[in-house]
Amino acid sequence: MTTRFDQSPSADGLWTGLRGLDGQPCAITVADGRIVWTGAPDAVPAAHVSLPRHEGGGALVTPGLVDCHTHLVYGGQRANEFAMRLAGASYEEVAKAGGGIVSSVRATREASEDSLFASASARLQSLLAEGVCAIEIKSGYGLSLEHERKQLRVARRLGEAHGVTVRTTFLGAHALPPEYAGRSQDYIDLVCREMLPALHAEGLVDAVDVFCERIAFTLAETEQVFQAAQALGIPVKLHAEQLSDMGGAALAARYGALSCDHIEHLSQAGIDAMAAAGTVAVLLPGAYYTLRDTQLPPIAALRAAGVPMAVSTDHNPGTSPALSLLLMANMACTLFRLTVPEAIAGITTHAARALGLQDTHGTLVAGRPANFVLWKLQDAAELAYWFGQRPVRCVVRQGRIAEGAL
């Protein structure tokens, strides 16, 4: 039986017997759910020495993981489309046959809020057990005010129930709903003039996203959504350059986007714009793998330009049914050729930045909420090396010992 998060033990005290990513011994002091000190074991402040102790036994410690791009709340599943693609159908052919995003829209609209919460909660538990302490959850399978609201309400409930930082992203411009077939502009007007203002007023929107692609929305339609978000003071991000080079990344950068995600077809102009704007590149190897893509993201060019690279599961029912952020780190290394330090930063520091959480998550710094993970590992490289196992010893989330035991 799983312990309710609010009944989990406090992490307050002195955490010793830890090793940092550099392999050196370290210690952490937690008080009132926040990190108040971190440093070498022989430099523990005198006032902390008598605090209750949590012995790490030589465990590797990292910041809590951050999954910065997910579509966690949805109805149904799309295993049949997986089979279609294996039989030779393309992503676009699946969509044109009535599959793709629209099939998840049907199932999500039919599902109750409680059933969506139950199914998403089970998926979230898998991510939390692996050390995720912050997560983005997008809407985009409702495509109407009523059902987008339902998705975002579930996302908020998940954060409260599981004691995890949730950032909600309104992705009303994910696909054209069937009732708006042939009326793309009318739907974008609805998104900008009715849906976004209403959901924002209800406190359900932390960021706004658009699927800018030839099978989704144009640059002009994307900019209209960005302008609506900007008028409300909401940050933006973008599904950009996944299937073709639409120039979406450069547009998003002009609006100071938190991130551009997928980016397999990203151009040098897009890279330069992102670098100038401080926009994070979010790599989604799960989708690349599932779709059997062959166009690699321009990793070397992103690296050369100094664009921070995050890594995420992109959990969704159609193109990345992944529930392991560590597996995504491995894929980012093996498929995209990230280094181990890049992959670790991609699921911690840079992922936090992609959600605008760089001041509270992604690093072990005094004054921040206590979100960290103890791993039964000898070397930091093992975080990206193993797949198919969970080497978590203990997860401290929001100042509580949320998973595992010492």
TrEMBL record:
Residues reported in the UniProt entry to bind Fe(3+): 69, 71, 239, 314
Cofactor: Zn(2+); Fe(3+)
Binding site for N-formimidoyl-L-glutamate: 141, 316, 318
Record-linked InterPro entries: Amidohydro-rel (IPR006680), HutI (IPR005920), Metal-dep_hydrolase_composite (IPR011059), Metal_Hydrolase (IPR032466)
GO cellular component, one term: cytoplasm
Annotated localization: Cytoplasm
Function noted in UniProt: Catalyzes the hydrolytic cleavage of the carbon-nitrogen bond in imidazolone-5-propanoate to yield N-formimidoyl-L-glutamate. It is the third step in the universal histidine degradation pathway.
Pfam families in the cross-refs: Amidohydro_1
Positions of 4-imidazolone-5-propanoate binding: 78, 141, 174, 242, 319
CDD domains: Imidazolone-5PH
Coiled-coil segments: none
Name used for this protein in its record: Imidazolonepropionase
Source organism phylogeny: Bacteria, Pseudomonadati, Pseudomonadota, Betaproteobacteria, Burkholderiales
Homology family: Belongs to the metallo-dependent hydrolases superfamily. HutI family.
Cofactor annotation comment: Binds 1 zinc or iron ion per subunit.
Amidohydrolase-related domain: residues covered: 60-401
Major location category of this protein: cytoplasm
Keywords: Cytoplasm, Histidine metabolism, Hydrolase, Iron, Metal-binding, Zinc
Catalyses which reaction(s): 4-imidazolone-5-propanoate + H2O = N-formimidoyl-L-glutamate
